[in-house]
Amino acid sequence: MKFEESMQKLLAITAQLEDGGLELEDAVKLYGEGAKLAENCKRELEQAKLTVAEYNQQQPAPDGTET
Fold first, then answer.
1. What is the pLDDT of residues 13-58, one digit of tens each?
2. Separation between Cα atoms, residue 23 and residue 9, nearest integer Å
3. Is 32 buried (19+), middle (13-18) or exposed (0-12) by CB count in 10 A?
4. Apex CA 6: angle with CA 2 and CA 12, to 5°?
5. Closest CA to 9 of 32, 50, 37
6. H or E segment at 63?
7. Strand boundaries in 1-67, DSSP class E
8. Alpha carbon of 16 to those of 33, 35, 54, 59, 63: distances in Å?
9. How confident is the model at residue 9 (pLDDT cuts 50, 70, 90)?
10. What are the boundaries of each domain within the chain?
């Protein structure tokens, strides 16, 4: 699942939980699903951060020297 899809699903789950009205068992299942989605999103963001950092290290500094 793409990051954006995961975030949309996580937002939908959050809205459902905040609205209330769910049976306890359903709320717990949704919470667990949301926790997994949040962890996956966090991992993807960390990987993106590392990729950007690597890219930035490969670029020459404005004065032409390597960073």
1. 999 999 999 999 999 999 999 999 999 999 999 999 999 999 999 8
2. 20
3. exposed
4. 150
5. 37
6. none
7. none
8. 12, 14, 38, 45, 52
9. very high
10. 3-58
